[in-house]
Design goal:
The chain is an alpha+beta fold. The protein has a single domain, classed as 4-Layer Sandwich (S-adenosylmethionine decarboxylase). About 20% of the residues lie in helices and about 35% in strands. The chain has 10 helices and 21 strands. The strands form 4 sheets. An 8-stranded antiparallel sheet has the order 2-3-4-5-1-6-8-7. Strand 20 and strand 21 form a beta hairpin. Helix 2 runs antiparallel to helix 3 and helix 8 crosses helix 9. The radius of gyration is 22 Å and the shape is globular. It starts with 12 loop residues before the first strand and ends in a 6-residue tail after the last helix.
């Protein structure tokens, strides 16, 4: 019997929930007053855990075993990758917000890209149609202004899926109207193999996930994206990386799945056109760190914001070309602009045959903005190649670091560290180690058996 190859799903699902209430004393901290037990129970429904956490006067940011969680007084954002069941967090969050804090849901926004391994996703994420049906039946009926849309690109494998529901009429766009706030979600695939190797840990390095994560942040230049941000980073074993950055009330987050054949990285930031963050610098630094083969950028902002116009001008000098651009409007969520990019490639194919008769085909191209930049990537390994006139051509040394087997039969799994629990005691916050429950341990065995692993 033949089985379809499935690696780790890097593309995240993102859920944003907004709440409102009448008690000003509750609204000062709002959702941040939820106990960690409530958060833990919610994440168990999603099938992930907390590995690290940090907070400031505006929000709490959690690095998860699969991506990130951000908690504001009246807003919560959960972003999870792999085979997590993100939409199953809605019911417990509505319940805890209502019963513990007297807060009521006013807006739901769900977004995601196109999965690399869609057949590996569990219900309700088996298709966008199933996700929309689940959202329609789960959300309160008073969120009656709803819209679902699949925003296309020139590539059938890259689309942006958006669902919004709110109790505010269509022409109001409160969440993104203040100071022209925006949310930018960047998804990158086919990462430069040499740069992706920086997100692998050395076997037996003896480091914690926190210390290894800090090292990756410095080594890759991620810390230079926003030097003012408070960074909470984590490196998984044997590979993978997650980071949350907080700069006042705004956050940024990065998640990397570096395995060859299905490499993926995401960058998300929330900001305002009136703040001091240079979005052009941010975009160019992200491209420089990963040099992706494909990149999509989804920008959600108020109707008057022009931040999306900055994207192409920022990345095209780095060697990327705008391939498609789609725009749509959503109730109480402003406009969404979805842009896709691929490199301007001067591509020349080469084939090399090793001593065992295996032919290796690879390509190289420049035009990455800086004159000396050259990317070399292994494309195919096959015994079916005919003799090549340049069979004695040697693969450049840079390829020596690239794994030569794309069709892996064994899958590496990130080990699950003990979670850091964010505790609150009389207004003070601290992190401490906590033990996982037996339920989590049992779930971990089932999850590994299905080729999932904490990111």
């Amino acid at each position: 019997m033949a089985f379809a190859f499935s690696g780790f799903e890097g593309f995240e699902k993102r859920l944003e929930l907004h709440f409102f209430g009448d008690d000003p004393t509750i609204l000062q901290l709002g959702l941040r007053k939820l106990s960690f037990d409530c958060i833990q129970q919610t994440l168990q429904a999603v099938q992930c855990t907390v590995v690290s956490a940090v907070g400031n006067s505006y929000l709490d940011a959690y690095v998860l075993s699969e991506s990130s969680l951000f908690v504001y007084p009246t807003k919560i954002i959960i972003k999870t990758c792999g085979t997590t069941q993100l939409l199953k967090s809605i019911t417990p969050l509505i319940f805890y917000a209502q019963t513990h804090l007297g807060l009521t849901l006013s807006l739901c926004r769900y977004t995601r890209g196109s999965f690399i391994f869609p057949l590996s996703q569990p219900f309700p994420h088996t298709s966008f149609e199933h996700e929309v049906t689940y959202l329609e039946t789960t959300l309160p009926s008073d969120l009656c202004f709803r819209k679902a849309s699949i925003m296309p690109s020139k590539s059938s494998s890259h689309s942006w899926h958006v669902f919004t529901a709110t109790n505010i009429p269509h022409h109001s766009h409160a969440p993104y109207s203040q100071n022209h706030a925006y949310t930018m979600e960047i998804c990158m695939t086919d990462l430069d193999p040499v740069l992706a190797r920086k997100f692998f840990r050395r076997p037996g390095d003896g480091k914690t996930g926190d210390s290894a994560g800090k090292e990756m942040t410095e080594l890759t230049g991620i810390g230079e994206i926003n030097s003012h941000a408070l960074v909470c980073d984590f490196a998984f074993d044997p590979c993978g990386y997650s980071m949350n950055g907080m700069d006042g009330e705004w956050y940024s987050t990065i998640h990397v799945t570096p395995e060859d054949g299905y490499s993926y990285a995401s960058f998300e930031c929330v900001g305002s056109m009136s703040d001091d963050v240079d979005i052009i610098h941010v975009l160019r630094k992200v491209v420089q760190i990963f040099r992706p083969g494909t990149m999509s950028v989804s920008t959600t902002s108020s109707l008057g914001s022009e931040v999306w116009r900055e994207v192409a001008g920022a990345v095209e000098p780095m060697g990327l070309k705008l391939r498609s651009c789609a725009m749509d409007q959503f109730p109480d969520s402003g406009s969404v602009v979805f842009q896709t990019f691929t490199p301007l490639r001067r591509k020349s194919a080469h084939t090399h045959q090793d001593e065992g008769g295996l032919a290796y085909s690879y390509s190289e191209w420049s035009n990455w903005g800086d004159a000396e930049a050259t990317r070399v990537g292994l494309i195919k390994r096959s015994r079916s190649y005919p003799p090549h006139p340049k069979a004695d051509l040697k693969i450049p040394n840079i390829c020596s670091e690239i794994p030569r087997t794309l069709n892996k039969t064994k899958h590496s799994h990130h080990s699950r560290p003990q979670p850091y629990y964010l505790l609150r005691d009389q207004g003070k916050q601290q992190c401490c180690m906590g033990e996982e429950s037996s339920d989590n341990v049992m779930w971990e065995k089932e999850r590994v058996a299905n080729h999932g692993r904490g990111k």
